Amino acid sequence: MQYSSVSPQWFLPSLMLTLIRPTMFPVLRNEDLKEMLESNKESLKLEAMKRVVGLIAKGKNASELFPAVVKNVASKNIELKKLVYVYLVRYAEEQQDLALLSISTFQRALKDPNQFIRASALRVLSSIRVPIIVPIMMLAIKEAAADLSPYVRKTSAHAIQKLFSLDPDQKEQLIEVIEKLLKDKSTLVAGSVVMAFEEVCPDRIDLIHKNYRKLCNLLVDVEEWGQVVIISMLTRYARTQFTSPWKEGAVFDENNEKTFYDSDSEEKKGQIEAKPYIMDPDHRLLLRNTKPLLQSRNTAVVMSVAQLYWHLAPKHEVSIVTKSLVRLLRSHREVQYIVLQNIATMSIQRKGMFEPFMKSFYVRSTDATHIKTLKLEILTNLANEANISTILREFQTYVKSQDKAFAAATIQAIGRCATNISEVTDTCLNGLVLLLSNRDETVVAESVVVIKKLLQTQPTQHSEIIKHMAKLFDNITVPMARASILWLMGEYCERVPKIAPDVLRKMAKTFTIEEDIVKLQTVNLAAKLYLTNSKQTKLLTQYILNLGKYDQNYDIRDRTRFIRQLIVPSEKNGALNKYARRILLAPKPAPVLESAFKDRDRYQLGTLSHSLNIKATGYQELSDWPAVAPDQSVRNVEVIEPVRNLPSSHTSSYLLVENNIFDKEHHTSKGITISSRVMTATAPKHLFSITNQMKWQT
After folding, report:
1. Are 196 and 160 in contact (CB under 8 A)?
2. Which residues form the Clathrin/coatomer adaptor adaptin-like N-terminal domain (predicted)?
3. Could you tell me the pTM of the whole model?
4. Which of 59, 176, 210, 363 lies 20 to 30 angstroms, CA to CA, from 139?
5. Averaged confidence pLDDT in the chain
6. C-alpha dihedral (256, 257, 263, 267), degrees to nearest 10
7. Residue ranges of the domains in the chain?
8. Distance between CA 167 and CA 122 in Å, rounded?
9. In sequence order, which residues have a C-beta less than 8 Å from that of residue 415 and are 6 or more positions away?
């Protein structure tokens, strides 16, 4: 081995340190840590707490040390006390009885001069999940909400959620604290108090009215996760307070400009005039202040702004989020998955947004299967007459992929393109027929299933394809594909009268070894051929029905008995036999090939419910736009002009006079002269008269 790039002066000491480290820093047992925590030396206690917190960080259980740790909660060493509080926050809920013994210490710590100690004490206090201390927690939260430190006020907002989950009956008092904290102008507090609002009283929109504009203006400076919470809340708020910018027939006119030609209005006197849409200034304020956040480095913030524009912005402004969403596709695959899900939903309604960035959704060989499938979904949504040839060429490459699940999804996408764009239906069908000779069984099976669905849309034109599939039937082994071909033979048996009976003959030979789904379709094929071509297939049908009568699967036995009673005439079922043809050979509606994301827009973008396509616990639905906007004056804040205070120097001089510093007993001519000189230099004019009057009295 060569170490030419490593300097020996640096390499040897590091190697020695590596060899010595196990002896220099031995792994201590719990008994050793207890001894260190109970020693009289602060340095040993601090070292022990560092090791204990290190154990917690590694996920190891350190609950046995709770009695020894809690003794140090009253330590005067700030660093040690911080570490003790970190430990207590982790284990206070598990060791509630021991934590309660130190509750007086926590209460004293709430008055500590150090803001971090006050915040840590409140955090520990709120972590003790004992109903008996609810009044103490409530009092501590109220005091912390009025603390001078924004960090402590932020911690009080976090404690509100813990107290509410412990005792929901405290809701009214907690709402009062939330209302007070919502007025806080600190960006450190804003995100936490909105989170508490969402947890405790998300329906109290009236608490937001007076703070709406302040939250919009503070949004850029709030920490990232606070931005996500505030944007989500403001999205719900805006849907209840502003009118829809998507009204059909309405003209978007932000500047409220009148039309230039008056003659146009004369021609449309008989028609209902479409009033120009004038956006509420507060609505515009929200959109304007969230737009810069599209450049955020936090993907959750970008996604939040994107969903806000999707749900609130005029349609012609939504496209500004496109570049930011495409930028997120360079991130980790977990982020890609969520972003692609949202893009898939958006691309169904507005294809034009992402069409210029179509190449960004081309599949890479390094992509995971779920990422490939989502990109395939988006490409299918973006397909139109102009770009379909490019997309189909891309799909031809994907079909050859070694990933079978992805290749099958590609064939389904080709089928959707053929359904949506009639100009390429024949081309897609011919391409799928060629895939029937593929060596990969999965590709062949999926091709058969898709061809079956496409043929249902226009069966009269493609009898040759049905014949070709019948010829390949012996080589196809996938049960679903064989069942699909048998279904096609039975459904269109009158169009292939010579081939269908022969396929039934082959199935009679292998009936006992086929899969259940194939057996069911064989019974259906036999019944349909019995009704349409009984001369050739009567004996075959009876033979297959006899085989099915004694099959091991009860579904097949039941189906066989039902079919026999339906098609074979007898004295008992004479009335039912008349309707056999109408039941079995009834025209069936063609299947609709739709996107899996078609109905996901009923959930708010970026939410867990949207990702899972099911309503998750805690999901809050977006309300519909109001027909008439509520009174916007509720968001007006009365600004009380502060009384002009005197400058500090002036105030001090004024206080000298107020406190009778110039009392006659203590005055000397020298003192008055000095005081007069000071006041002349610093005091305002209305104080000169007081000074002169005192001079005259002296």
Report:
1. yes
2. 29-568
3. 0.75
4. 210
5. 81
6. -30
7. 475-598
8. 17
9. 428, 432, 450, 453, 454, 593
